[in-house]
Every structure is written in C-alpha cells, then in structure tokens.
Design goal:
By secondary structure, this protein is of the alpha/beta class. It has helices spanning about 10-20, 30-35, 40-50, 70-80, 95-105, 115-125, 135-140, 145-160, 175-180, 190-195, 200-215; strands spanning about 1-5, 25, 55-60, 85-90, 110-115, 130-135, 165, 185-190. It has one domain: Alpha-Beta Barrel (TIM Barrel). About 55% of the residues lie in helices and about 15% in strands. It is globular and about 75 Å long. The structure holds erythose-4-phosphate.
C-alpha cells in the first residue's frame, strides 16, 4: 500500500519525502488554507518539491464550480503547471463527466468525497486514476469504513477497473491497518497520524528495559 501525505504545509512535505520517501501527496482547500499562503504560490512550491519524481500530487479544483466544462478548463490549467498534478474533482454528475473529459485529454484525476460503492463505480467508469473514500467521516456517522473499502476494492477488481483506492480522512494507526487489510492501494493521512502510528507504549517500555540491561552489562 502506498503512503501519501495529506497536507499543503511545505515543511511537512519535506519531512515526509526525506524520512519516509512518501509515494505521493493529497491536498484539499482546507490544507491550502492552513498553509497560510495564496493558492497559486503554495501549489507552485509543492510542484517544485516533487519536480523530477513520478509521485502523484492531488490538487483540487475550485469546489464552487459545478459546471463540468469549467471543471475541465480549470483542471487542464492546473495539470499544465506540473506533470505530477492529479486533478481532484468532487463526486457528482458534473464531476464524473469532467473526469471522463479530463481522462480523454490524458489528465489524471482523483474522484474525491466518495461515500458509496455506486459513486466509486461512476468514478472508475469515467476513468478516474484515483478514488478517495473518506474513512473518518464514514465512521463518524456510524458506518463501517472497512467494509466500504473492501466492497470498493472488490468492485474494482471484479470489473477490472484500473482506478486505485486512496483511503482518505484517516485518523489513527488502527485505520491504516484496516484499510491495508481491506485492499486500499494507497492511504493518505496527516503527518501526526503517521508519526503516532510508528510508536507504541510497549516499544517505549521495551527500549527502557533493554537500555537498563545494557547499562548493567560490563562492556570491556
Ligand atoms: C483526502 O484526499 C482529503 O484531503 C482528506 O483526507 C480530507 O479529510 P479530512 O480533512 O477530514 O482529514
């Protein structure tokens, strides 16, 4: 399963690239806002960080646009800025039409805000490179996000669609494990979620036990 960082903070992205060799990036308007920089400036900086790699970077079109032709127009402009850019489009009738059109122009897309297998199927049929089911949000509303990922994975496999699942809105290490087992191709989460998932209180305790043993052993 590929590891994508969900962020638009350049320091976080540099850290992820340097320490984890992350496989790609997802951004959204909330992340861009929290970068504190204007939209074009931050996405140019991000493009620079990924230049010369083949790692996908999802950049979302203006979420106010509901007309498919305008989504395509804006998506095509963004795609020209970097070969890494994958155009993130919200799931809707216009969104799926825009995905189909962008795909026909060889522009990769990420269908976002996916909450049902039917939406995932429309996205796959339209040619989306990535499909982003939102785990955390599903679970907040009491749905089984793991079952959802399994069903989307099975639907894609059974009908031989090439879209990859990016399990999104991940809140903890348990969910990372769940989506890996359920068949997600990629996971995207924030820096802190990944860092937490690398630690465990038993590991800290065990290190202490071994350090004590080390200190109590003669070393010459
Ligand atoms: C995924 O691509 C989204 O950017 C992201 O996971 C959104 O969810 P969140 O902001 O609730 O984490």
């Amino acid at each position: 399963m590929k590891l994508f960082l969900d962020s638009a903070i350049t320091e976080e992205i540099r850290h992820g690239l340097e320490y984890w060799d992350l496989d790609g990036l997802t951004t959204n308007p909330k992340h861009i806002k929290s970068s504190g920089k204007p939209f074009l400036k931050v996405i140019e900086e991000i493009a620079e960080l990924f230049a010369g790699t083949d790692k996908p970077v999802s950049v979302e079109v203006n979420p106010h646009i509901t007309d498919w032709e305008q989504i395509v127009e804006e998506g095509a402009k963004l795609a020209k800025m970097s070969p890494n850019f994958v155009i993130k489009v919200g799931a809707s009738e216009s969104g799926f039409k825009a995905i189909r059109e962008l795909t026909s122009q060889n522009i990769r897309t990420n269908a976002t805000l996916i909450f049902s297998v039917a939406q995932a199927w429309h996205a796959a049929r339209a040619g989306a490179s990535f499909i982003s089911p939102f785990m955390g949000w599903k679970e907040t509303y009491g749905d089984s996000a793991t079952t959802f990922i399994m069903e989307v994975a099975e639907m894609l496999e059974r009908h031989e669609y090439e879209s990859e699942i990016i399990a999104a809105a991940i809140r903890n290490g348990r969910q990372i494990a769940d989506v890996a087992i359920a068949g997600a191709h990629c996971v995207t989460a924030g820096l802190g979620v990944y860092q937490d998932s690398m630690q465990n209180p038993y590991t800290v305790h065990g290190e202490k036990v071994f350090q004590n043993a080390w200190d109590e052993t003669p070393h010459e």
